């Protein structure tokens, strides 16, 4: 057998290539970008009371200054949340997420 030439008895087994996993930070950035794009495209986005993952993303975007968050009471009254309130908010009330400075009323 000469070097560089495969042996006639060698068996090559191909392994399927798997795509590299996307790091969690990249997924998080992508989700934040999608949420921000949706809010900017529609002007405002209603977030259900129990949608905790979306609320967390919105709270992060509020801290960065991209969105404003209002808590929507059952009667329809809205109260603007400060970033510290949004981070600690319970999933009891729905939110309205809008562009920062456009659409959120002062409390």
Give an overview in words.
The chain has three helices and four strands; from the N terminus they run αβαββαβ. The chain has about 110 residues and is α+β, with helices and mostly antiparallel strands. The chain has a four-stranded antiparallel β-sheet, with helices on one face. β2 (about 65-70) and β3 (about 80) form a beta hairpin. It is elongated and about 80 Å long. The N and C termini lie far apart (about 85 Å).
Helical element count? 3
Shape: elongated
Q: Please report the total strand number as a whole number.
A: 4
Task: State the major sheet.
Answer: 4 strands, antiparallel
Could you tell me the mean pLDDT?
Answer: 82
Q: Structural class from helices and strands?
A: alpha+beta
Instruction: State the share of residues found in helices, binned by percent.
Output: 25-40%
Task: Point out poorly predicted stretches.
Answer: none
Strand order of the largest sheet: 1-4-2-3
SSE string = HEHEEHE
- For the terminal residues, how far apart are their CA atoms? 84 Å
Backbone CA Rg = 24 Å
* Percentage of residues in DSSP E strands: 15-25%
């Amino acid at each position: 057998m000469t070097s560089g030439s495969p042996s006639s008895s060698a068996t090559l087994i191909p392994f399927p290539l798997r795509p590299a996993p996307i790091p969690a930070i990249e997924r998080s950035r992508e989700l934040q970008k999608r949420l921000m794009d949706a809010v900017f495209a529609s002007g405002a986005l209603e977030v259900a009371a129990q949608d905790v993952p979306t609320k967390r993303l919105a709270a992060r975007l509020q801290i960065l200054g991209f969105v404003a968050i209002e808590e929507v009471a059952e009667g329809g009254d809205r109260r603007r949340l400060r970033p510290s309130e949004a981070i600690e908010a319970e999933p009891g009330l729905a939110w309205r997420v809008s562009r920062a400075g456009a659409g959120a009323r002062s409390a």
